[in-house]
Amino acid sequence: MLGFERIWTYLLYVFSVGTVSPFDAHGTVQSPLLQDSSQLKDYPIFLPPNAPEGSGFLCQYPGLTGYESCGNPKDQGCWLRPKDPKSGLKEYNIHTDYENDYPKGVLRKYTLDVTRKTLFPDGCKNDQCKVFNDVYPGPWIRACWGDDIEVTVTNHLDCNGTTIHWHGIRQLNTVENDGVNAVTQCPVAPGDSLTYKFKAMQYGTSWYHSHYSLQYADGMAGPLTIHGPSSANYDLSKEPILMTDWNQRSAFEDWSWTLEHNTRPNMTSILLNGKGSYIPLTMLLLNPANNPQPPEPHTLFFKKGLRYLLRLINTSVDTTFVFSIDGHKLTVIQSDFVPIKPYTNTSVLIGIGQRYHVIVEASPSPEERSGNYWIRTIPADGCSSFKAKYTTQTGIVRYEPLSKVNPTSKQNQFDTKCSDETYSSLKPVVPWTVPNITLSQNHEFGVELTTTFPPPYYPSNFSRWELHKGPMWLDFSRPTILNLAEDPSKWTAELSVNTTSRDQWVELLISAAEIPDDPDLPVGGQFLPVSHPIHLHGHDFALLAQSEIPYNPSTAVIKRDNPPRRDVALLPSGGYIIIAFKTDNPGVWLIHCHIAWHASSGLAMQVLENVRDIAVPPQALQTLHQTCKKWNNWFNDGRLKNCATWHPFQDDSGV
Ligand SMILES: *[C@@H]1O[C@H](CO)[C@@H](O)[C@H](O)[C@H]1NC(C)=O
Ligand SMILES: *[C@@H]1O[C@H](CO)[C@@H](O)[C@H](O)[C@H]1NC(C)=O
Ligand SMILES: *[C@@H]1O[C@H](CO)[C@@H](O)[C@H](O)[C@H]1NC(C)=O
Ligand SMILES: *[C@@H]1O[C@H](CO)[C@@H](O)[C@H](O)[C@H]1NC(C)=O
Ligand SMILES: *[C@@H]1O[C@H](CO)[C@@H](O)[C@H](O)[C@H]1NC(C)=O
Ligand SMILES: *[C@@H]1O[C@H](CO)[C@@H](O)[C@H](O)[C@H]1NC(C)=O
Ligand SMILES: *[C@@H]1O[C@H](CO)[C@@H](O)[C@H](O)[C@H]1NC(C)=O
Ligand SMILES: [Cu+2]
Predict the structure, then answer these.
(1) Ligand 5 centre from 437 Cα, in Å?
(2) pTM (2 d.p.)
């Protein structure tokens, strides 16, 4: 019997951080921007209104002669408009249907070098970190709405492959750039490089991270922003804020430990942009002088009366956070890559992988005499696992005249229940109406813990999470995208959704509880009271229902008229979600739980979307084969020479 205890086994994970700010990492952008104003042409070149002060980053639209930029603190909903209103040209703004229409920008090139590094993000040493360009979090990758992005990733690790996923990017007709090993490519072998190419049709904030097994938890995560319009006005903006749980060992070690002990490892601290502080209770009592020296917490400087745009990203392994700033209200204007109608609250709940754009008005109440206020990141009840003590006061807002003292401000009033933001508050600006669909397009899945799976799952006596008819287990050397082309019979259809007609709506009901008499749910597994942040690649999905009670077809409330839309939604413990997407993007798309332990355990599935229409360009196909060839060479040779082989190399699902 699996008890409640057992559940936690799979939950814990670690995240990585460094002592260097990600925003120091200049020089990685080889953008073709004309920074010299003497070269100004008859097309828009401008500092995006939502770029942080002094960042010197320019948007440029050489293809849009006769246009000018129009976003400003009084009208952040505007992006580009025709100079001559009578020209008949259309405006690009917050109401533009960005899935079908976007301005044509420029090509921006970035490079990411992956190396091993020792970091002290919470004052304690972690010598197993893996980072981008020597910093944690990784450098801020930025583009403007409609730009093309190319990122060349080089793997300098000695014993790990890697792939980089651009979280939330739709990858319309570019599935081979989605960065999921064993699905859309082989891992990039040590010593090898790969260039990812995709278009920024959406705008807002996201993150990029390794999708190679548990690797992102060791530090391979960074912010990704596409500048575009906003659904509410503000004066200035700040750099992205990445929040994460953190551990002082490699996630690979934690996972091996999990497999042996069948229990979930504890996280040790919370990091805000790579900075946190670990509170070792015993050391504190014994000898305070021995305490690790934590870095200064992340600090935001505000001027009274201004409105600031903040970009919040939850890059956790195992923690849903409640984000708040003492004495300040937050106006939420964007969830994931989807602009929404603004609403105001005292806190915002951010699940793993989720992002929010929020506006903070710098008029605190009650006002602190010191002019300092805590930023709090509180793990939601039941959605985290930490060692006994950790600090949730992870950042500081300071007003002039600046002082160095710690804030004494009181926490705002809010709930810390583990959930998503209130369903009815998330109203997309560009509405979708999801039609009634026929039953054959409706698929039902249960998130269960199971012991019924065939070899070669390792170790054999370990319960795994499954989403469909078994826990996912991928073969690094045999990516689905190539399998399908070469030998469709090898495809394990029972682990997938398989769609074949274009522009059809598909609905997935994902249940965390038993549905009586439902033949579609797997047998032999066990539902456990755990919430899961479910992420779909290749689409923003409409969230037709999100419920804390089990699905009942006769009473379920399903919203089809402009439902919330995003790319990660929390499946509530004991309840269900129904998500819908339109088959307009041929590809092989992963759907998985974003709790790193659960994805490793197998809580994932592939959506085969109109695979006959996948058209990988010949050059890209050749690259896919090359990457596999180098991976296989390393796997069969370099790995054996350089890496410890005392345990199975692959001991998790692969993602
Ligand atoms: C990845 O590297 C870690 C060391 O950081 C090692 O323990 C692990 O076995 C490697 N795993 C794979 C699948 O590459
Ligand atoms: C990040 O997501 C996890 C999992 O959903 C959640 O437990 C945690 O509270 C989130 N963190 C924040 C700061 O919202
Ligand atoms: C995690 O921390 C809790 C609370 O201190 C403790 O009861 C539990 O034993 C710890 N688990 C592990 C695996 O260390
Ligand atoms: C504000 O947050 C509370 C939880 O603290 C939630 O119950 C309420 O619905 C939220 N309000 C809006 C408008 O979303
Ligand atoms: C969808 O189906 C439901 C139940 O069969 C029905 O009540 C509703 O009117 C239908 N909606 C549309 C837009 O057809
Ligand atoms: C599998 O695990 C169970 C429960 O921990 C234990 O009783 C059993 O002996 C194990 N079986 C093997 C083959 O290790
Ligand atoms: C997907 O479904 C189509 C139509 O039923 C079928 O021809 C094809 O073999 C299926 N593909 C896979 C990989 O299961
Ligand atoms: Cu999960």
Answers:
(1) 9
(2) 0.88
